Amino acid sequence: MKPQKSTLVLAALSGVPFIMVLGNSMLIPVLPAIKEALHLTQFKVSLLITLFSIPAGIIIPLAGFLSDRFGRKKVIAPALILYGLGGIVAGLAAILLKSLAYPAILGGRILQGIGAAGTAPIAMALTGDLFTGKQRGTALGIIEAANGLGKVVSPILGALLGLITWYATFLFFPLVVIPVVLGLWFLVKEPEGNRQAQSVNQYLKSIARIFEKKSAMLLTSFLGGAVALLILFGVLFFLSEHLETVFRLNGVRKGGALAIPVLFMSTTSYLTGRIIKKRLALMKWLVVGGLALIGGALTMIGFYRTTYLFFIAISLAGIGTGLTLPCLNTIITSSTATERRGLVTSLYGGVRFMGVALGPPLFGLLMGYGLPLMFWSTAALAGVTALLAAFLIRVKDMKAPTTPEEINRPAPYTPQPAFGLAARKPWNPPDEQGL
């Protein structure tokens, strides 16, 4: 792909995760205002994040299957439109309804979540289709950086919109969807000939074969993405309340403070994508190091919570997330053939959404038991995930099969080691003459 054309294509593709991430991150600075306006509990206000993310996580595998069968753009464009429509429903509910505003807003958020299922994960698969070799790592790093940039901009943007009114954030979604849909449709030319016409049963069997061969690496990678985003959104949810009650920050100042960890994450994601290229072993150890850095930063917050150390620690956690996610994106997309990439990346995206969904309520629950327990328990989760990545992500599993025979070949039988004498000397059955 020519440099100028690839820049336009990447710009169009980057708009998809940028828009998708606004769905949660832009609401975080106005959650206290929503809580006050609708007289909600801390748990009920966290459902505005959770009921966006859970439907997305459930629908994403279906969106991945449809993208493999009918094309990526034919899934992404309608999904973006549904995403914008959910914002209209939530915004109008806040304006027109009174006692029923909260459940109607939740309904709009569910619609947005269903739409979000067909956005960023499918855009990631399409990026994997369009770019190969060293370009793929760089392109996926830019896609993750766009995701991070959305997280940086969205708290500030949400705080600015909140100055108008708390429901202005919902009505902003359809305004930004339109240019992204047009850019994707007219600038991105999807590769032809990589759609598959298998039956659903055959397709699922081929996916099962991928997991037979690479289950340890794929499941560990899925867990790593979920844990990184669970912690990120849990910390942001905690910060939204903490910055007002402890540091007395409101409005744009609060949005700027919320943007600090994701600014470090976005910058690190971009730089990581530039350096990993096809260095498979480096990707593995950056994942391990990134998760370990997240765990170390959270442990430090549990011990020391002075203002400077607090912001240093959340910045380090952002750097750790920026090291982890681009490498996991590249590992997932590079280890799967094009014909199966849509569903596999969508399963990964679904697990990531589940991490986002669980983060706010989990941190909200743990806050009731004290901040040290909240930070140390999530630090332990990051540490355990780093150890699993060190032992279960293997370089040889990161390469995609390149021929139909490799794609459909069953996993080879590997005899399990026996115990006792049989472990020392294999037994061979005698032939007929030996009986």
From TrEMBL:
GO MF annotations, alphabetized: transmembrane transporter activity
Superkingdom, natural source: Bacteria
Keyword Hydrolase: no
Pfam families noted in UniProt: MFS_1
Region (Disordered): 403-435
Transmembrane regions: 7-31, 43-63, 75-97, 164-188, 216-239, 251-273, 285-304, 310-331, 343-367, 373-393
Subcellular location: Cell membrane
Sorted UniProt keywords: Cell membrane, Membrane, Transmembrane, Transmembrane helix, Transport
UniProt keyword DNA repair, yes or no: no
Membrane topology: Multi-pass membrane protein
CDD domains found in the cross-reference section: MFS_YfmO_like
Gene3D superfamilies recorded: MFS general substrate transporter like domains
GO cellular component terms given for this protein: plasma membrane
UniProt cross-references to PROSITE patterns, sorted A to Z: MFS (PS50850), SUGAR_TRANSPORT_1 (PS00216)
Major facilitator superfamily (MFS) profile domain sequence ranges: 9-397
Family per similarity comment: Belongs to the major facilitator superfamily. TCR/Tet family.
This protein's name: MFS transporter
The organism of origin for this protein: Desulfofundulus salinus
The organism's taxonomic lineage, starting at the top: Bacteria, Bacillati, Bacillota, Clostridia, Eubacteriales
